[in-house]
Amino acid sequence: MNETVLETEGTTPVQSTESPVSAEAVATPDATVAEQAVTEQTAPEASASTEEVGETSSEVSGEEKPKKERVERPSYDAEALYAELAAAKKAGTTVEVSGSRRVRGGILVTYKNMPLFLPTSHLSLKVNPSETDHLALIRETFPVHVHELNEKDKSRVIVTRRRLLRADEMKNYQVGQKVEGKVVSFTEFGAFVNLGPVDGMIHVSAISNRRIAKPQDILKKGDTITAIIKEIDPAKERISLSMKELESDPWETLESELPPGTHIRGTVRGVTDFGVYVEVKSGVEGMVHISEMSWAKRLKHPSELFQKGQEIEVVVLSVATAKRKLQLGYKQLQANPWDTIASQFTIGQQAQGTVKEVSQSGIIITLTEEIDGFMPRGKMVPNLRNQKEPFKAGDQISVIIMDLSSENRSLILGMEGFDQGGAPEEGGERPARTDRKRREGGEGGRDNRPRREGGNNDRRGERRDNNSRERLPAPQAVQSEMSLLDLLSEDERKRLTGNE
After folding, report:
1. Is the pLDDT of residue 495 over 80?
2. Lesser CB count within 10 Å: N end or C end of the chain?
3. pTM higher than 0.90, yes or no?
4. Run of H or E residues at 59
């Protein structure tokens, strides 16, 4: 057993026993260290018992040893004090403690005579507090926050000073202040910067005027940077930093540098469902919307034309400095095929095309490299209209130009025979109403036939009544006994028979 000498004012040193220190105990968590530290607090009693045994042995051996005073532990109500500490932790308030003595892994403090543990990691804002920092708190009274409680053993409570020290240190910083710090770690949304006693966080959007995907695109761990304090939140103990305010703002002169109509080359930095972002100069990106990519081709996704990292030429459509919005166009660099489409196609003309895409409403068909047309399902032949995939992408198909409007940029296609009548296949559409009228005799069809009295509803009622009546057997035909002479007058019969 290792012996430790405890000294109290006005008394002689008292020896106490401690458990042996293993190599693994040096790096134990705060809770384990707290358990060991609080256990040490009970050492004087064990020491006193040992000393009493020692005194008896001395008497037997005849040796004389000086008598040592026994150190009594002050009493306290652990249950009541634990409830006070739990309430303070829940409310986020502080409690006043007194430094008692140095122990392994920190210092032992007391709250109304109840021993608590203050770990070295929570002693100050330094990464490695010195021994002097530890001893400076002995016999001092200072506030702490309750850091951790233990319901199973209410004598093991861990406290901290870091929150108070950090809040006091943050008072030395002001919004707008320029600071220097070292990059210490990264997250998906930014980087943490050590400013000395406290850390600050710089969001990825505040690192540069350029659009970057992650902070590592510009920063690396260990870099010393200069930033501006954008926000201080004492409640959350957070300092927000920004670097881009220290860069020159390229948007300030953008309207004069890039007026609408300017042709400029740029690099595709991002591809989205609705368009691509193009960097035209350092710190300035514009958007090419999918509607500004082609005059006549129906694009399903911008990736059909562009890939990230590709260099392209674009046209400036508009600049909004206040909103930092730059609209760009790509199709404006190409000839508009709608201006000459009337010379290529006419209504009723037959053409060959390639199926590009099949949807519920119809089919997109590529006629030329610049022009796509649309064939609604209603313009297909009847036996194909309700099929889920009447065609597949890449199929070659013969179509007829049904409608053409260069003003509305619309090209409607159809199939030959789409309006033919006849009974449709199973699951197909019914023939058009005009076709049914023709089959039923003339333009009028059923509507021109004379109606019976009572209308359709009366006839349906009659049929229902007839069906519900008892069916009677049909009357048998009565054989007629009349002859041809019976149909003649008496004079005619006399002339015919010669009895006249």
Report:
1. no
2. C
3. no
4. helix 43-61
